[in-house]
Amino acid sequence: MQRAEVNGVELAYQLTGAGPPLVMIHGAQGDQSMFANLASAFGANFRVLTFDQRGSGLSAKPDMVYSVALLADDTAALIDQVGFSAAHVLGVSMGGMIAQELALRHPRKVRSLILGCTTCGGPKAIRPGGGALAAAYSTQPMSAEERGRALAEAAFTKEYIAQHPEVISNMIEARRQRPIEPIAFGHRMKAAYEHDTYDRLGQINSPTLVITGKNDALISWQNSSILADRIPNAKLVVLEPAGHCFWLEQPEQSRDAMLKFLG
After folding, report:
1. Residues in CB range of 209: below 8 A, 6 or more apart
2. Are strands 47-51 and 21-25 parallel, antiparallel or unpaired?
3. Domains along the chain with CATH numbers
4. Which tens digit of pLDDT belongs to each residue from 174-231?
5. How far from 67 is each of 42, 117, 148, 175, 231, CA to CA, in Å?
6. Which helix (H) or strand (E) holds 110?
7. Long-range interactions of 128-132: CB distance < 8 A, separation 24+
8. Rounded to the nearest 5 degrees, what angle is found at the Cα of 76, between the Cα atoms of 171 and 108?
């Protein structure tokens, strides 16, 4: 694990593989470890940068106002720091929001864009029904067991959990190893709720793949349809059955779709 100071905050990051640069941007309460399988799979063809964002994982967690634009600027600065002039960019969930802002604010740094299980935000977005989001993304202090179980049950389909019950214990262990800091997480969630790119999506000029799971209980697949409709020439892939963590439920289909796009 390496560390770099960007925009006055220290970020933990890792570089693996060889080839054209590929940056992976994690979700709201995730960290770079969520890309362990993907980074390994793509490392044969790409120089992969994964990192913990401001307020996440092993990076600094300042108590201040966060915004998706700020997190995009952090990403752009880290891209410069590691010596990439431009990179392919994959962002999932909140990471997909950050990837949108990165493409809008720093277009020359984005060779292509993969937006996974994400949304444009704002009043035009499709909001989730039920209490899955509230339970899984509560900003109140929670034990590793409570938070890990709530997120696993919201992020995966019931059928997948039935076949792979270990995902719950794995998520709980991940929260033990890298606990969520409630104050910084609250700042991150506020930033996500304020995200809105709907009226600016037409300005994205990077080749774009939008990919999601049809059974996503956290960010409806219809949000991916909105993104694909409004980003010029974007391609949409909807995987079924798959929940929010589509790349784990459908690893081969996800990898094939992304590699085909990047190729």
Report:
1. 112, 113, 114, 115, 234, 235, 237, 257, 258, 261
2. parallel
3. 2-127+196-262 (3.40.50.1820)
4. 999 888 999 999 999 999 999 999 999 999 999 999 999 999 999 999 999 999 999 9
5. 29, 19, 25, 24, 22
6. strand 110-116
7. 128/217, 128/218, 128/219, 128/220, 130/217, 132/217, 132/218
8. 125
